[in-house]
Amino acid sequence: MSAVQHVTVLGATGSIGLSTLDVIARHPERYQVFALTGFSRLAELQVLCVQHRPRYAVVPDDRSALDLQGRLRAAGLATEVLVGEEGLCAVAADAAVDYVMAAIVGAAGLKPTLAAVQAGKKVLLANKEALVMSGVLFMQAVKHSGAVLLPIDSEHNAIFQCLPGDYARGLQAIGVRRVLLTASGGPFRETPLAELERVTPEQACAHPNWSMGRKISVDSASMMNKGLEMIEACWLFDASPDQIEVVIHRQSVIHSLVDYVDGSVLAQLGNPDMRTPIAHALAWPERIDSGVSALDLFTVGRLDFERPDEQRFPCLRLAREAAQAGGSAPAMLNAANEVAVEAFLQRRIRFTDIARMIESVLNARPVRAVEALDAVFEADAQARELAAQWLAVR
Ligand SMILES: NC(=O)c1ccc[n+]([C@@H]2O[C@H](COP(=O)([O-])OP(=O)(O)OC[C@H]3O[C@@H](n4cnc5c(N)ncnc54)[C@H](OP(=O)(O)O)[C@@H]3O)[C@@H](O)[C@H]2O)c1
Hints:
This protein is of the alpha/beta class.
């Protein structure tokens, strides 16, 4: 790579955003930050702007923009502060941008991530919810614009690393029998089923291996994260849900595997640190230092595997059913899950209500075709309304 590459980090104040900036800061000769975006942690965004001196910062509203603009000017920075979804889409699609890290959490990331795709950028996809909601339209936009989609989820990044470069020919054509998606099983892998009713948001967010934002931590505890990842993998690798098998691997050292028809199984291993997939995607097809220490197999000692228990993790079944149903089902699943996780984090519902609420929302409306983005947002809005009703009457 010759010229310095300009990077927009959507969701810079989050866990993935900070890991991305850590990797970028190790390679100032390769990468320069073009734009940083935040939502509620605006003091942190200000600190990041001082450290990385982006051309743009994006905040959610005019008042925050005025405030941050004043502070940045006072600190002697020329950074221009933009506002809202329009600002997010502008910094994702700007002609000067080479890479976009899509690391906003949830449905809020869909429009800016799509803006990056439509502008033909190299898109580092952490925001799995965007792809889950709009799969077919998202992948059509990638094909149409020539954008390069690089998976950041450690599992999908691992699968990408285990596939040949021409995997777009189709899994069957390249001799893949199935994809094995690993999952840690989260903090409640062994909790007695009867106790799951009483687990707290703090317990759900205490992931045994990974340090992540609160929404994905709860998703990992319920295994909805693996369900969303299964749908994400179907779109990224043109697989059907039955070509993907979820394997509980409690050590989170193998990040996923690909099983070929000749009996070979390729895996990608590493310490559980998101800077590895981030550095891989940023430098691809080259390799750069990520700051992650070398894997010490003698310390790891052993690797265990188990089949997931769908009685313990009903969200996994709900996601598989939504993947099989297609159409509006994944967008509704995602939206109902976002409402349920937020309600659980606010202690309005129990952990076990998350799956109950999602199932009730999915059963309330027939699956519809989604031929345009409007239909995706309609399904999203309808699921949020049904979830709100569920919360109100329960
Ligand atoms: N963390 C991981 O290890 C990991 C691994 C694989 C995939 N992912 C995926 O990466 C994405 C980010 O996860 P995370 O763990 O980094 O989450 P996080 O720590 O909660 O960060 C989320 C980011 O999105 C911003 N944001 C939240 N709501 C927004 C809105 N309505 N509009 C604009 N920006 C908004 C947040 O801003 P403020 O902080 O300023 O509010 C923050 O910058 C998720 O889709 C997750 O599934 C994460």
